[in-house]
Specification:
single chain, 155 residues, mainly alpha, 3-stranded parallel β-sheet, 4 helices
Length: 155
C-alpha cells in the first residue's frame, strides 16, 4: 500500500499532466459506459475539479498549498504545505475555512456524488422492477396452478 501511495504521490508531483490524463481517461470510460446526461454533467464537474487542483498544484511547484493551516497540524504527505506570501492561486488552494478542502475538491466531490447517485438510482430502479416482475410471475403461476384445472386432463 505504501508503494502505491508513493507512486501516486510521485506521479502527481513529478508528472501531473500524465496523472491528469490518466484521470481523464478513467472518467471518459465512465461516460462511455453510463449514457446519461446527468452522468455526463457529473463527469464534466469532475474534469473541472481535477483541472482546478492541477492548476494550483502546478503553479506551486507540485505541492498543494493550504491557506489557514493550523500550526499544530502536520500534513500527512509532503504534497501539502502551508501557504506563504509567495503562494500562487490562493483562491484555488486548500482552505481551512472549507474544512481543508479546495474549490477543486468540492467541485470534484459534487461531480462524484452526482455520478454515484444516478448510478445508484438506476440500479435500485432496475432491481425494483425485476423484483416486481418476479413477484408478478410468481403470483400468476400460483393462481394458474390453484384456480384453473389443467387443460390436459381428460374426463
Amino acid at each position: 500500500m505504501n508503494l502505491l501511495l508513493a507512486a501516486h504521490q510521485l506521479a502527481w508531483m513529478q508528472h501531473p499532466v500524465i496523472w491528469l490524463c490518466e484521470s481523464y481517461a478513467i472518467l471518459w470510460l465512465v461516460v462511455r459506459m453510463v449514457r446519461s446526461p446527468w452522468v455526463r454533467a457529473g463527469v464534466l464537474l469532475m474534469f473541472c475539479g481535477l483541472t482546478l487542483n492541477a492548476l494550483v498544484t502546478d503553479a506551486n511547484a507540485g505541492t498543494m498549498p493550504v491557506v489557514g493551516m493550523p500550526s499544530q497540524l502536520h500534513p500527512a504527505s509532503p504534497m501539502w504545505r502551508a501557504a506563504t506570501p509567495k503562494t500562487r492561486l490562493l483562491l484555488l488552494a486548500d482552505q481551512a475555512r472549507l474544512g481543508l478542502f479546495s474549490v477543486g475538491d468540492l467541485v470534484l466531490m459534487l461531480g462524484g456524488i452526482l455520478i454515484v447517485s444516478v448510478c445508484l438510482h438506476r440500479t435500485l430502479t432496475m432491481e425494483g422492477s425485476l423484483s416486481c416482475k418476479r413477484l408478478g410471475w410468481f403470483l400468476r403461476e400460483a393462481s394458474r396452478s390453484s384456480d384453473c384445472p389443467s387443460k390436459t386432463q381428460t374426463s
